[in-house]
């Protein structure tokens, strides 16, 4: 596993981001044959996986894609919308999204910016911590599969 090169306080967002990137890089190095993860469900702490949950391969590809955003920043808004919508958003949808966004900005301007910051910061911290645990679980599960196969 890679070692963090810079030390930040334990609950610092940069620490959480660095840890996530390091764990996903380790996952990428350990998982040599990602196709083996297809159709293998991720079970939560010994419990049976819920029907309809993504398999480990989907988790693996999602975690890698998010790491790229964490390491290199977000795509410009237009590129991100095209990626999410598959480039098929209609003009009416664009106008509705812009109207909705303008309304959100107006409401957001009325709210306390510090409270918004704390809400988003704690949410991002929680999500990155959860994704880090998921990457560790994918790595562990792959290692178990390879240990059984060998």
TrEMBL record:
A GO molecular function held by the record: protein homodimerization activity
UniProt superkingdom: Eukaryota
- Kindly name one Pfam family recorded for this protein: Spot_14
Name the Gene Ontology biological process terms. Answer: regulation of lipid biosynthetic process; regulation of triglyceride biosynthetic process; response to bacterium
In its keyword annotation, does this UniProt entry include Ribonucleoprotein? no
Record localization = Cytoplasm; Nucleus
Acidic residues bias: where? 95-104
Region annotated Disordered sits at 83-106
Keywords carried by this UniProt record: Cytoplasm, Nucleus
Gene Ontology CC entries for this record: cytosol; nucleoplasm
- Record-given protein name: Thyroid hormone responsive
Q: What are the leading ranks of the lineage?
A: Eukaryota, Metazoa, Chordata, Craniata, Vertebrata
